[in-house]
Every structure is written in structure tokens, then in C-alpha cells.
Design goal:
The chain is an alpha/beta fold. It has one domain: TIM Barrel, CATH 3.20.20. It has seven helices and ten strands. β6, α4 and β7 form a beta-alpha-beta unit. α1 runs parallel beside α3. Bound molecules: zinc ion (ZN).
Length: 267
């Protein structure tokens, strides 16, 4: 159970009673290590064979849990900039993989109500398409150019998830180069600024893949587990957060992040 809790949960749990609000002056001297949460789709769709969907109500409760602890959800770009100033304490990186249209229609309003930002990792090779890389399960629409621009206009970070959602560790050198470089150029063409972040599809990477991402000009890349030794900011670990993650589970995940190499190392 303990080792399993950082992975995808299997069953839902009843909500625990809300914890008491923090007492003024009770904050521990040493702030907890920063961490990055990994979401995908935010929707009321209950057909979710890959455990990648949270309902907007659950997301709202999870963000409320963060806010009650004095934590603020931010994009990875903002988190790393804060870390560079030694000011990442109290921040949680929020990431949404695959770039589903529900990021704009459903997650964004929830994030904005809290004043939080996030990073959405999109697939410029599938603009306006759907999650055709999943062999089964519900088809979900992906952001198009207008959707990407509205996410940026709302203060969110848009970053690359590659072009088409391939396992890059199995790609030829040429395909790897195209997925990593062309996705960055296409995105920059859409939003008009340099793209800083990359996210490995399926969380899969090796030294060759991390090297290609570094050489393409990105400043960081998100993984899931810790990457190969020396990957640094090119394999930022993340904690999966799903529909089953009630306040009790979130607290446990937060505490276990450092033990399981899922906390962000200080710069
Ligand atoms: Zn993905």
C-alpha cells in the first residue's frame, strides 16, 4: 500500500473529514520539499481504464486541500524560476498531460478560482485530434490552435509532449529528433514565445532521449519516476494524482515524495 500510493490508485475511497485550518505561527521552520503533481484529463467521464481522469469536483477539493496548507499550485516554469531564487517552498507544480480540450473547458475555471497556474503538455502533431494512441477507452478531443492560445492567454504554461505521443525510447534517431524539435518549433509558432518544457510520453526516457531534449533547447523535462543518474532538470519526477486521491492520500503522497525520489531536488 505504501509503495503503491505514489502510483495510480486502484479504488476510490470515502472522503475523510476536512483537516483543521493551519494555526497562525504553526508552520514548521523547514518548509517541505517542492513536488510536481501529474494530472491528465479533468472530466465527469467515468469510463477511465487508464486512471487518467479526475472529476472537476475532485480537482477542486484537491486544490482546496493545497490552499488550506498554504500551498500554491504553479506551472513548472514558475516553480523552477522560484527554485532558482531559493523560494520554491510552499509551491506545488501542477501538470496536465496530453492537452485534452477539457483542460481549457473544465480544469482552467477550477484553477483560476484558486488563483493557481499549471503547465499543460500538448501534442502539436495531433492538434484538434483525439487520444488515438490509447488502444481502448473513451476517445477524448485534444486542444487545437485556438485552445492552446486561450490556455496561454489565461496565464498557463503550454509545453511539449512531443508531436504524436510516441514512446521515444523506441524511436529511431530521426523520429526522436522530429518529435522533440518539430514539436517545439510548431508550438513556438502558435504561441510566439520560446517553449521551455518537455514531457516524456508514458514517462519513458533514457540517456539518449534526455540528451535529444536537452539539445533541442528545452530548459526542463518532466518524467514520472526518477530518470537516469545525472538527468537533473531533464527528468523531473512527478506524483500521479487521481480521482481516488482524497485529502488523506494526498497528505501521504506529499510526505512520501522525498523517500521515493518524487520530490524536486533543490537547485
Ligand atoms: Zn501522455
Amino acid at each position: 500500500m505504501v509503495a503503491d500510493i505514489l502510483a495510480a490508485p486502484r479504488a476510490d475511497e470515502p472522503d475523510p473529514p476536512p483537516p483543521p485550518p493551519p494555526v497562525a505561527g504553526s508552520r514548521p521552520k523547514r518548509r517541505p520539499a517542492a513536488w510536481v503533481a501529474m494530472y491528465h484529463s479533468v472530466s465527469d467521464c467515468r469510463d477511465d481504464p487508464y486512471n487518467v481522469t479526475v472529476t472537476p469536483a475532485r480537482l477542486d477539493r484537491q486544490l482546496a486541500w493545497m490552499a488550506r496548507r498554504g500551498l500554491r499550485g504553479v506551472s513548472v516554469r514558475e516553480l523552477l524560476a522560484a527554485r532558482a531564487r531559493g523560494a520554491e517552498g510552499g509551491l506545488v507544480g501542477l501538470t496536465f498531460d496530453d492537452g485534452y480540450t477539457d483542460f481549457v473547458t473544465t480544469a482552467l475555471p477550477v484553477l483560476r478560482r484558486r488563483g493557481f497556474t499549471a503547465t499543460v503538455f500538448v501534442l502539436p502533431g495531433r492538434l484538434g485530434g483525439e487520444n488515438a494512441w490509447e488502444p481502448t477507452g473513451p476517445r477524448k478531443p485534444l486542444l487545437d490552435v485556438d485552445g492552446i492560445r486561450s490556455a496561454v492567454a489565461a496565464g498557463m504554461e503550454v509545453a511539449s509532449h512531443g508531436l504524436t505521443h510516441l514512446d521515444l525510447t523506441r524511436a529511431t534517431d530521426r523520429v526522436l529528433h522530429t518529435e522533440v524539435n518539430d514539436s517545439r518549433h510548431r508550438l513556438a509558432g502558435i504561441i510566439g514565445v520560446g517553449i521551455e518544457g518537455f514531457c516524456y510520453p508514458y514517462g519513458r526516457l533514457d540517456e539518449r532521449v534526455a540528451d535529444a531534449v536537452r539539445r533541442a533547447g528545452y530548459r526542463y523535462a518532466c518524467a514520472i519516476g526518477p530518470g537516469p543518474a545525472g538527468s537533473g532538470d531533464f527528468a523531473l519526477p512527478r506524483i500521479h494524482v487521481g480521482e481516488a486521491d482524497t485529502a488523506v492520500r494526498l497528505e501521504l503522497k506529499r510526505r512520501l515524495a522525498r523517500c521515493y525520489g518524487r520530490a524536486l531536488e533543490a537547485a
